[in-house]
Amino acid sequence: MKNILITGGAGFIGSHVVRLFVTKYPQYKIVNLDALTYAGNLENLKDIDHSSNYFFEKANLLDAPAIESVFDKHQITDVIHLAAESHVDRSIVSPLDFVYTNIIGTVNLLNVARTKWKDDYSKHLFYHISTDEVYGALGDTGLFTETTPYHPNSPYSASKASSDHFVRAYAETYHMKTVVSNCSNNYGPFHFPEKLIPLFINNIITKKPLPVYGDGLYTRDWLYVKDHALAIDLIFHKGKADETYNIGGFNEWRNIDLIKLLCKLMDEKLGRAKGESEQLITYVKDRPGHDRRYAIDATKINKELGWKPTVTFEQGLSETIDWFLQNTEWLDHITSGAYEKYYDSMYSNRV
Ligand code: NAD
Ligand code: DAU
User: Fold this and answer.
1) Pocket of ligand 1 (CB under 6 A)
2) Domain that includes residue 272, residue range
């Protein structure tokens, strides 16, 4: 019997992890702790929120007493920690928000777990979900492995690197059982439309400019979000204590190539003329400190745990576009109100 605290479960990846665990493990109690920031949305969990093994707790990671009472109320046995400020562009504008949530919030959570589990740390797992961005940027060749030195370049990645270090330090110092995974770029349903793929899907639907940063030749390694959730499930149950696992799709795309594929698929699905959406492509001022290339070597998780992606990029992208076209209400709820202000402040002097 496990009572698992999943933080950030109302966000993009967290909602897929919550759904997977609630449906696959009816014997577990799944507690979703989320502050419901701009990125948290309970609509992401509408299909499972009546399940008898699912519980939602609105709480902020900065509020240590609130975390403590959630631990007591649900007798939490394990943590899967996803809650974070996650958008690089926002971290460039407001670095301190990332320090508060990603560093101090993680340390608060570690402290509560450390106190509540002190009788026997071996019975409890603290699993931290991290990012490949902690490794910095690659040149034209090479891949990030689990032993690549940390070299974060943005306030976001610096805050994630710091939280990874704290998790390791708590394992070393207090002998807590921990695991960390570092994943590449995710995409899929419920992706918040500030990130490249959902932003561009939304802009193609509404015929707005597609703001390509710099020369568009930056490279990312894309993974379907449901494959990330499956990897998290495997690592949670079978991963070795105090280890790191890299997760990625061996699926590198230069931004401009990905954007052209997205335009082509969307023209077909929307019944638009061939080449119509590509005309929306607009090169804009680059992101400061923009990492040139990320690419994950996912050999370890494949060899040790047998994980590999189940969905090809073409399938995943096509399913993602279909999901956004079928869920316009979800998109409309997000892109009204505060989102418009964010979009204007981020892009009005860029495009
Ligand atoms: P997201 O921004 O969609 O969701 C973050 C969630 O955390 C939201 O529900 C938000 O309400 C919650 N949250 C934020 N601050 C909080 C606080 N102070 N207290 C409690 N809850 C808070 O993020 P995502 O893209 O789903 O990423 C989830 C995790 O995975 C993050 O830790 C991120 O660093 C990591 N990650 C993301 C990607 C990616 O491509 N999106 C890739 C690798 C790793
Ligand atoms: O690598 C994992 C990381 O991937 C996660 O840790 C982050 O939480 C997640 O946000 C993501 O970071 P990126 O910065 O890579 O993702 P983003 O979608 O913001 O940008 C992807 C690429 O597209 C990047 O090279 C910047 C570029 N871009 C992005 C936006 C939003 C544009 O050219 N135009 C845009 O408008």
Assistant:
1) 8, 10-14, 34-37, 39-40, 60-62, 82-86, 101, 105, 129, 131, 160, 183, 185-186, 192
2) 196-219+252-292+313-343
